[in-house]
Design a protein that fits this description.
The chain is of the alpha/beta class and 426 residues long. Helices cover 48% and strands 17% of the residues. It has 17 helices and 13 strands. A hairpin with a 2-residue loop joins strand 6 and strand 7. Helix 11 packs antiparallel against helix 14. The longest helix is centred in the first third of the chain and has 21 residues.
């Protein structure tokens, strides 16, 4: 985002004379704004915000239909990136408190001259610019928590434990992942991919922006792996307002970096032993995100009629054998897995879900280095049939260390395969 780019603004005030004066007299371009709309009541203002997505809403406190306070609340839910400035004739502490609650950037009192308002708007522009500047990606600082978090998310070495080991918890506290003395915690994993014109533009330094934005909701730690960011959210209880925070994240990346964020959300969980399974859920959910750009793992099960644990028993032995099993053991397990898979895929939706889960499993295991196992897995996935009469021919033509180069993954992204299959099988 260029510093010289004009910020967009909407003016809302039920006093027609004042509203028209503000719109016509303020030298908007000179102070770095572009006036895109005005409204005489709160309802019209809300509709304009939804339609035009302005950087700033300058609104009166008391207006017909929807008050300025209620408008600020609804704008916060609809367009959290939009900054709000109150223009009010009421020097009331209660209003000022609401302004703080709804993240209002400025509280201006009437009467106010056009010169004073112009100066105030110039200051507001500077505040918004500084907010945007803080969203720019930065190189991650050296920190030991990444080295601890990556294996938890990608390897699943701790999954066999029934509860979190005290030594692990001590390491998490020491690394700054878990707060000292925090005995209760609710965890969620997000998988985030940043795109531009359909191409993956995710870079490791974008973890800074993600953690800064989501850190306003709860403790957030992000790592880069396989062309995406994996984010672990740690809260004392399941965080409220998660989707609102994700909306702000997506709007921020779109406005400042012109990137589309696609986010998958795992089920909440309460043990660090489940980090790996939750990572798979988040990546799985991300692949199903359509135009909305946000998808929760629970939606997959609900829409496909498939239980969350459909592939748990199928994939768990593969996890272990890929790391330490013999070729014979792995071949035997893959044969059994393929038989179970073919039996399970009776409908297109169930097939979509299960095939996607297999790709997710392979994707998360981008740290595997076993050539023989990789060759067997390649053959297995190549032979997957989504439905009895429709075969997906897929070749894993690169090692798991370069997941973004996997033809299986690049072909699968966007669900082109399953759209075609659904049409044929309809």
């Amino acid at each position: 985002m260029e510093q010289k780019e004009l910020l967009t603004v909407i003016v809302a005030d039920d006093e027609t004379e004042l509203r028209e004066a503000v719109c016509s007299v303020i030298p908007w371009k000179e102070i770095g704004f572009r006036l895109v709309g005005s409204a005489g009541n709160g309802l019209d203002a809300l509709q304009l915000v939804e339609q035009l997505q302005p950087d700033l809403l300058l609104t009166d406190i008391r207006m017909p239909y929807i008050s300025g306070v209620s408008l600020a609340q609804q704008v916060r839910e609809l367009r959290p990136l939009t900054q709000i400035a109150f223009l009010s004739g009421y020097d009331d502490f209660a209003y000022a408190q609401k302004a703080i609650e709804y993240n209002v950037i400025s509280y201006l009192l009437k009467p106010i001259s056009m010169r004073e308002l112009t100066e105030a708007l110039a200051e507001i522009r500077g505040k918004i610019r500084r907010k945007f500047a803080r969203l720019l990606p930065q190189k991650p600082e050296k920190s030991g928590w990444r080295e601890l978090l990556l294996p938890l998310l990608l390897d699943g070495f701790a999954e066999e434990a029934q509860q979190d080991d005290p030594a692990l918890l001590a390491s998490l506290v020491g690394a700054g992942i878990l707060a000292a003395g925090q005995e209760r915690y609710s965890l969620t994993v997000l998988a985030i991919r940043l795109e531009q014109d359909g191409k993956n533009r995710t870079t490791p330094d974008m973890a800074y922006t993600v953690d800064m934005l989501l850190g306003k909701l709860c403790r957030s730690r992000s790592v880069y792996s396989g062309g995406r960011l994996l984010t672990l959210l740690i809260a004392e209880e399941e965080p409220r307002g998660l989707e609102l925070a994700i909306d702000e994240l997506r709007q921020s990346f779109a406005r400042v970096l012109e990137l589309r964020a696609i986010v998958g959300i795992s089920h909440p969980f309460t043990s660090f032993c489940r980090c790996h399974a939750a990572s798979r859920e988040a990546v799985d959910a991300q692949r199903f995100a359509g135009e909305s750009g946000i998808y929760h793992i629970s939606q997959i099960a609900a829409e496909s009629g498939t239980a969350q644990t459909d592939l748990g028993a199928l994939l768990a032995p593969l996890d272990n054998l890929l790391r330490s099993g013999s070729r014979e053991e792995l071949e035997k397990q893959l044969v059994q897995a393929q038989e179970e898979y073919e039996e399970a895929t009776k409908t297109a939706k169930r097939s979509n879900y299960i095939c996607n889960e297999l790709f997710t499993w392979a994707d998360v295991y981008d740290t595997a280095n076993h050539d023989e196992c990789r060759a067997i897995l390649q053959q297995f996935i190549t032979e997957i049939r989504v439905r009895k009469d429709y075969e997906i021919s897929i070749t894993l033509n690169a090692s798991f260390n370069q997941v973004e180069q996997l033809k299986a993954v690049s072909t699968y992204d966007g669900a082109e395969i399953f759209e075609e299959i659904s049409e044929k099988g309809a």
